[in-house]
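Action item from last meeting closed. Structure (326 res):
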């Protein structure tokens, strides 16, 4: 049995990609072959050597490969005009890996802490992308043409049916959609996949995101104006027995930052210390806006926090309207 995974990284995120890859290898030792396709955004030879040593560490468990793919070569048809790195869009071009029909894509800020084996054999039905339902501002869901009854997925951990993508020429559809927004689509790659692809819903344990710790399900549905979400029992089970943890920042900060308060940051730190050459922590303070949100979230009543989110939503709407009219 072979598991195909993909990540996208540059040198600036290579430590986190290394942590993710190490954690995947460590928690899936019973899988005979694991191939990691790393979309290479000018990664240095030195950092590639470090990652290759990670694969060598687990060679006794079976075949472990890291295969580097030139991100600029496979995405040559794409022209974006945002501040987001091209690495953000890399997953849209995975269909070019012709010998792979199913792949698990992982953002570099994720850590695997359980078995991924079930994802290798699960029935993908007619959905080409499977992910965990996200909690996003309702404004963004509307911006890509969905409604509150649609289950918008987080694309930091997704199982992709690449065979279907090739059969339906999905890559061309992605590029056309991005170009229709002059290279600046709403919610970048995640908006593209949710708008263009038929999606399926994975159990929350496969992408445990920060809001699952921050809010109850009742509050999530109210705050993000969602009709459908997981049950509280499903979220509690995911937090108790996660498979993949996604360190998305927000009020906790990132686990490689010294002031991180994420309740599961120890998993990142554990694998960071195991990397060849070790890892580095950062002193990167919260932004002013996040400090204000933290103060309201931790010290104010929840209704004040809700109104703050509504104000941010209104500001986005007005900015979008101004850009459209201007």
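Sequence:
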């Amino acid at each position: 049995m072979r598991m195909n995974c993909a990540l996208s990284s540059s040198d600036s995120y290579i430590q986190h990609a290394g942590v993710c890859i190490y954690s995947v290898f460590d928690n899936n030792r019973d899988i005979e072959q694991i191939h990691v396709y790393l979309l290479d955004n000018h990664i240095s030879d030195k950092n590639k050597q470090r990652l290759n040593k990670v694969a060598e560490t687990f060679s006794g468990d079976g075949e472990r490969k890291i295969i580097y793919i030139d991100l600029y070569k496979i995405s040559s048809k794409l022209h974006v005009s945002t501040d987001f790195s091209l690495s953000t869009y890399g997953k849209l071009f995975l269909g070019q890996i012709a010998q792979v029909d199913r792949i698990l894509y992982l953002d570099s800020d994720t850590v695997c802490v359980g078995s991924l084996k079930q994802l290798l054999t699960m029935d993908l039905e007619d959905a080409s992308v499977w992910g965990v339902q996200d909690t996003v501002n309702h404004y963004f869901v509307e911006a890509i043409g969905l409604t509150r009854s649609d289950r918008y997925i987080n694309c930091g951990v997704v199982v992709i049916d690449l065979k279907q993508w090739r059969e339906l020429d999905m890559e061309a559809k992605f590029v056309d959609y991005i170009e229709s927004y002059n290279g600046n689509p709403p919610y970048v790659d995640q908006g593209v996949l949710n708008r263009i692809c038929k999606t399926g819903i994975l159990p929350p344990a496969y992408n445990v995101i920060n809001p699952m710790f921050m809010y109850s399900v009742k509050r999530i549905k109210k705050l993000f104006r969602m009709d459908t979400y997981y049950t509280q029992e499903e979220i509690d089970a995911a937090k108790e027995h996660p498979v993949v943890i996604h360190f998305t920042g927000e009020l906790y900060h990132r686990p490689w930052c010294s002031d991180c308060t994420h309740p599961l940051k120890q998993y990142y730190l554990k694998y960071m210390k195991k990397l060849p050459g070790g890892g580095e922590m950062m002193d990167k303070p919260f932004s002013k806006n996040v400090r204000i949100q933290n103060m309201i979230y931790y010290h104010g009543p929840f209704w004040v926090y809700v109104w703050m989110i509504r104000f941010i939503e209104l500001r986005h709407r007005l900015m979008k309207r101004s850009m459209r009219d201007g």
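Note appended to the action item: The mean pLDDT is 90.
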